[in-house]
């Protein structure tokens, strides 16, 4: 027993904490600052800022702390507070790279939030001192800002003036391609999109970009009556992917569109361009020889047929179009591309002379479209009741990542499917972030209600007075070395002064120094609040904030609803238009049937 | 893959891809921008965020003063100073009392390693004088094999709680070249 006690004491004394190290508040070693840093690294910008503000109220913050504060403000979607802080720090630092990155982030925020003029002006302003390392990022962002403003020609200049195409990312090249086409320089734009559409892929994101470039280029060719070129491009899109449905639809129409002239490469073509290669299954394989003739009618549930009055080439083209569309209609019926596919099939069948089958397909199309109209109505109801936005942001309700929050997936509700395009737009995403933030803030404020009550209880408790005054004396005097015991660092020093006169040797009395003027503070003295008064004041502020947050949340929700309703109304009109077309075609076919004009071959 | 989950995956990708590039279709009209009402509301919300932050800062300072007076306030911070070491569980107890337990998810574990941040794991009231602290941890290196046994350890120490705010930093470090990860205790105080 005695031995173990000795061992325990020895062990304990070995791990006794050393004397406390002293840190300057707000400095790099302040654990509170490092705790704020941890919260920021965790994505809890709100908590980090709360800590930093508390520190700021107690002592002057170091540049490190202020930098962290600026970063947190911006990440939490408060560019108005971040910008002056960055500007202040810029006066005292020479790190242009760090400052450049911060300015780019600020401009990105302005761009995404829709402050396009501010973003443009900030980017042009930083051009002079732009570090070389940031040139491509700067070009990319400025070009996106200009494109969002519709200034395609200016965007093209920004991306081509510096002659650094080799260093630009594939995203930038894609944007340049789009800008060139919109600026009327279609051949150059097509070449660039074609190159992005054939790029080597390393990640899933690359694959999506390559598909997107091919889809964009394919539809561009189709709109310009260049079916032959469009067909090859659509064939590069993966058969399963975010752009495959629209590509399938386009592939079908490309078969029926005029072939058009062969595309010449423009002068921006790169000699290092790779031929298209993909290890993924692409839509091109749908139209491989032998596959069309043997399978298509079987897969569509049709018997084989041939209408003699159609040219052989047109017949083959229609069959190939059917291959793409039959594949398409097996996919998600809520996708507008699939809905259009349901109309495209009977249209082709009618053209091929398979009138009965066309009639059957139009009937099925009406059924599908009616179902979609009902779904769209249900989605509209969900949006109007405010359920949609709540469903989207249901998870991470207390996440404090503000502007850096990303919508990574969508809940499986019909409205979110109809609104995919809108959901990807910055105006919706940023509004959604603000909605989330106001909700999180309201939740935070509500949580303070109980905490304030706990504080109140402390001040009302009679036990509070029981702290011995001795404790406060020790608290005030602890860790302070009396000057008389520390001679080395004593602020005063005794020395003999040989210039002093002996007493009574003065000719005139020394003039009394001017009495220090004591100025009385004007007005009412600043009121000192006791802690219990401060608690009462907090309660008042809490109620005001609750009301303001509820109002802002409501307003933000209405903005989101309006955007969603407008988008869904557009889609519903499209469904109705398809329905009218399908019913009209049906009526026409019935009419011809009645007249005995339909003779299936 | 069932249709439902396949659809979900695809939808996630569309959002990610279109956000990355900004424009959705070439030759399409310019992406619509928020109207002035939406921008005005954004300004209002930025202002409100400022108010709520100030409220939180004031309220938490007052709360600290009310519930954790400086003469008894003891903050415990945790830090990891070993690259690649992901802390999973941690517990701390004073004077043989019930331990406070913490578990960390991946984001939290990684945050320890990014910028030498410290996480304040607890704030307690302790009378001035000597106290015993015990802390236990469970961690694992990020590149450890899936079946590797977790790294565990503990620290017991005695410290002096003075009459002012006391900050205790528990650091997960390696004390020697081949030593196992272990906890050390640092006590700091403000110069003010």
A few lines on this structure:
The complex is a heterodimer of chains A (601) and B (192). Chain A is mainly α and 601 residues long.
Major sheet of chain B, described briefly? 4 strands, mixed
Uncertain residue segments of chain B: 1-29
Lateral arrangement of strands in the main beta sheet of chain B: 4-1-7-8
Order of helices and strands of chain A: HEHHHHHHHHHHHHHHHHHHHHHHH
Oligomeric state of the chains in view? heterodimer
Would you give an account of this structure?
With 601 residues, chain A is an all-alpha fold. In chain A, 63% of the residues lie in helices and 0% in strands. Chain A starts with a helix and ends in a 7-residue tail after the last helix. The relative contact order of chain B is 0.14. At the A-B interface, helix 1, strand 1, helix 2, helix 3 and helix 5 of A face helix 1, helix 2, strand 1, helix 3 and strand 6 of B.
List key phrases describing it.
A: 601 residues; mainly alpha; 24 helices; disordered N terminus; B: alpha+beta
Task: Show the helix and strand layout.
The complex is a heterodimer of chains A (601) and B (192).
Chain A: H1 2-14, E1 21-23, H2 31-41, H3 45-58, H4 63-75, H5 79-92, H6 96-113, H7 116-126, H8 135-148, H9 152-160, H10 170-182, H11 186-196, H12 204-223, H13 227-234, H14 244-256, H15 291-299, H16 312-329, H17 336-352, H18 355-384, H19 387-392, H20 414-418, H21 420-424, H22 426-460, H23 469-477, H24 531-594
Helix pairs in contact in A: 2-3, 3-4, 4-5, 5-6, 6-7, 6-8, 7-8, 8-9, 8-10, 9-10, 10-11, 11-12, 12-13, 12-14, 13-14, 14-16, 14-17, 15-16, 16-17, 17-18, 17-24, 18-24, 22-24
Chain B: H1 3-21, H2 36-67, E1 73-80, E2 85-94, E3 100-103, H3 106-114, E4 119-125, E5 129-141, E6 151-161, E7 166-174, E8 181-190
Parallel strand pairs in B: 1-7
Antiparallel strand pairs in B: 1-4, 2-3, 2-5, 5-6, 7-8
